[in-house]
Structure formats: C-alpha cells, structure tokens
Amino acid sequence: MFTTIKPPSTSALNLLPNDLFSAINELKRDLKAIILAHYYQDPDIQDIADFIGDSLGLSQQAATTQAEVIVFAGVHFMAETAKILNPDKLVLLPDLDAGCSLAESCPPAEFAKFKAQYPDALVVSYINCTAEIKAMSDVICTSSNAVKIVNQLPKDRPIIFAPDRNLGRYVMEQTGRDLILWQGSCIVHETFSEKKIVQLKIEHPEAEILAHPECEPSVLHHADYIGSTTALLNYSHQSSHQIFIVATEPGIIHQMQKYNPNKMFIPAPAMNNCACNECPYMRLNTLEKLYLAMKFKQPEIIMDESIRVAALRPIQRMLEMSK
Ligand code: 13P
Ligand code: SF4
C-alpha cells in the first residue's frame, strides 16, 4: 500500500481556471517547483514539463534539483524514488492510483521468501518496483543501464533479477550471465502483437522496428533497435530511416514526432483491437490533476524513514555505477 495523503475531492474540479497552462506556470513559480515528466504522459503534460526523460534521467534530475517542490508526472515508483533521493523536498504525484503492473507483480513478502532460497545471490532490481523491494536489493537498474550494471557485478556470484522477466532475459542475452528471474511483466509491453508488427513490416519494408526491452522475446526478436525510452528517442533522431514501428507506450511518439516532423512513427498494435498499448497507470495523470496537485500541495509522497534509508543505498549504487 502507498503511504500518502488523500487527494483533493472531485468538487475541486470546479476550481479549474480557463488557462491551465498559465495557471500551472504561475504555481510553478510560486512554489519554486520543477515538473518532471515521463515520456508516457499525455502530450500536454509533456509540453509543460521542465524535464522529460526515462527512469534514469528522471531519477538523476530528482537527485540533483534545487527546486523546493518536485511535481512528478509519472507513476508511483518514480515519485517514490524522487522522495527517497531527495527527502526534504515536497514530492507531489497528480494521481495516487498511478501505480505500475510490474511493481505490483512483486509483493515484498513473496519476494523475501524467493530471495531466501538463494542466500549467496546479489539482488538487482529494476527501478519499476516498490521501495520495500528496493530495500531488499543490492543495486537498482533501469532499462538504460541494466546491462552495464550486471556487467560490473562479480562473476562468481549468482544474481537474482526482479521483477521484469523480459528485461531480465534480454540482460542475460547481452551479458552472457545466468540470472535468476522473478517472473513479473508489464501489462502494456506484453500486449504487443508479433503478428501485427510483422504485418506492418510487410506493408512498410523500409521501416525500422524500435522496441523497449520490457517487450516479449517474440517482439524483441524482430527489433532493429532495443533500448530505454530515451535511447529509442535518440535512435529515431539519428537513424537515416524515415519510417519507424514503435513497440513501446505510444506517448513517446509525441517527442519523436516533435523532433523528427518529416519522419513517420507507427505505434505497434496490441493483440486485441484495444488501446491496451497505452499505460492505464501513466494515463491517470491529467493536466487538470497536475494543476490541482500543485494548488493543494497534495497528494504528497510520504515514506517510512527506515525503508527510505534502506532503499536509498541500492539507488545510490546504481547512480554511481551508471557514470
Ligand atoms: P524507461 O526507463 O525506459 O523510460 O521505462 C520506464 C517504463 O516504465 C517502461 O515501461
Ligand atoms: Fe509499469 Fe508498464 Fe506502465 Fe511502465 S508501461 S509504468 S512498466 S505498467
């Protein structure tokens, strides 16, 4: 369960100003706040953010910001990581229900039992997990540094990798290390249809397929480039290709299109004819909720200090090992 203060009631929606962009910018100045946003946020949130990034970039910003308030337009584990790194700041999350299926797939009590089966193992946890899981880990990683981190660990120690089995499998391939995988996955990235991606590639043979390592191996197998959201964005910019099939949450396409207006980006379709390739947690945040969070200075991330201190150590180790 998240430790937090209740959000403002929905009657507060009557208080919305006509020009939300100006009102948010004004509150940002008054609060001395910084708005950090993930690429999976709605385009209007991305447009008002001070920094948009992948999980590593966002945690680096959260660790070093001089702002007094961090408004985190992302999901709970991201805002929680910001609080762990910078406990004296007020950290606001526009919608407290913005969780993450991966984080939820790794309950602390079950993970503790799993870990106890491998007493010699080092624990590498993907940042998409709760503070309790981080506290049980030796080092945290993100999709952009997982390979680099695992490559730096002693060769004679077994390694538990949690919670994403797809990223874990990808890291195994890239490092040649045999990881003990927790069997978690992301409901968004496991939904992409290999069949529909192959069909799109037949229709656009000149297209490159870009994929996030949280995708299933059957999708990664077709990818021309695999990387974190920031890495995918940078690659789309540098590549001489003009068409891309994007196998990650389609929110990233806003930035891809902005920086490459003449290129074409096709979101990889889900297996069913649904919008399940959109992260239902990320999309809970809206510009309206962002405004209300800043106006009422809640919902705020509040943490148990002993868990925060225990979770800080492996995050700091990650930041050191990523340099
Ligand atoms: P990135 O760190 O690549 O942005 O990934 C975050 C995430 O939640 C992917 O689903
Ligand atoms: Fe979690 Fe998946 Fe959403 Fe990323 S896309 S926040 S891993 S549920």
Annotate the secondary structure layout.
Blueprint: H1 20-31, E1 33-38, H2 43-48, E2 51-53, H3 55-64, E3 69-73, H4 76-85, E4 90-92, H5 101-104, H6 108-116, E5 122-126, H7 131-135, E6 139-141, H8 146-151, E7 159-162, H9 165-175, E8 179-181, H10 194-203, E9 208-211, H11 217-220, E10 225-226, H12 229-238, E11 243-247, H13 253-259, E12 264-267, H14 287-296, H15 305-321
Parallel strand pairs: 1-2, 1-3, 3-4, 5-6, 5-7, 7-8, 9-10, 9-11, 11-12
The structure holds 1,3-dihydroxyacetonephosphate (13P) and iron/sulfur cluster.
Could you describe the 3D structure shown?
With 323 residues, the chain is of the alpha/beta class. The protein has three domains: 10-98 and 281-303, Rossmann fold (3-Layer(aba) Sandwich), CATH 3.40.50; 102-187 and 311-321, 3-Layer(aba) Sandwich (Rossmann fold); 194-267, NadA-like (Rossmann fold, 3-Layer(aba) Sandwich), CATH 3.40.50.10800. Helix content is 41%, strand content 15%. It contains 15 helices and twelve strands. The protein has helices at 20-31, 43-48, 55-64, 76-85, 101-104, 108-116, 131-135, 146-151, 165-175, 194-203, 217-220, 229-238, 253-259, 287-296, 305-321, and strands at residues 33-38, 51-53, 69-73, 90-92, 122-126, 139-141, 159-162, 179-181, 208-211, 225-226, 243-247, 264-267. The strands form three sheets. Strands 2-1-3-4 form a four-stranded parallel sheet, sandwiched between helices. Helix 11 links the parallel strand 9 (208-211) and strand 10. The radius of gyration is 20 Å and the shape is globular. The model has no long low-confidence stretch (mean pLDDT 95). It binds 1,3-dihydroxyacetonephosphate and iron/sulfur cluster.
